[in-house]
TrEMBL record:
Gene3D superfamilies in the cross-refs: Winged helix-like DNA-binding domain superfamily/Winged helix DNA-binding domain (1.10.10.10)
Protein name, per record: HTH hxlR-type domain-containing protein
UniProt keyword annotation of Cell cycle present: no
PANTHER family the UniProt entry points to: HTH-TYPE TRANSCRIPTIONAL REGULATOR YODB (PTHR33204:SF37), TRANSCRIPTIONAL REGULATOR, MARR FAMILY (PTHR33204)
InterPro entries named among the record's database cross-references: HTH_HxlR (IPR002577), WH-like_DNA-bd_sf (IPR036388), WH_DNA-bd_sf (IPR036390)
Domain of life: Bacteria
Annotated HTH hxlR-type domain residues: 1-85
Keyword terms: DNA-binding, Transcription, Transcription regulation
Nucleotide-binding found in the keyword field: no
Length: 95
């Protein structure tokens, strides 16, 4: 979700902006996710030397290569999650 949120921004987003766009994610989980994406070279981080520091995130070229596959996965999930849930309910009812 962070990759798609950054892709939709078409540039940089600050941490607070990302948190707002990704409703329901805790600050800790967002920070861990961004750090992992940065470590893997998918996200670049830029810090402004202000008080408090402003931290900006953007997708790298490598990160941009994930956008289309993730959009496809999101579309699949939106289409088929109701079927998956129905299958799980039916399976759980037979146990």
């Amino acid at each position: 979700m962070a990759v798609l949120s950054l892709a939709a921004a078409d540039g940089e987003l600050r941490f607070a902006e990302l948190k707002r766009v990704m409703a329901g994610i805790s600050p800790k989980m967002l920070a861990q996710t961004l750090k992992a994406l940065e470590r893997d070279g998918l996200v670049a981080r830029r810090v402004e030397a202000t008080k408090p520091p402003r931290v900006h995130y953007r997708l790298t070229g490598l990160g941009m290569t994930l956008v289309e596959p993730l959009r496809g996965l999101r579309e699949w999930a939106e289409r088929y999650i109701p079927v998956v849930r129905d299958n799980a309910r039916a399976f759980d009812g037979t146990l």
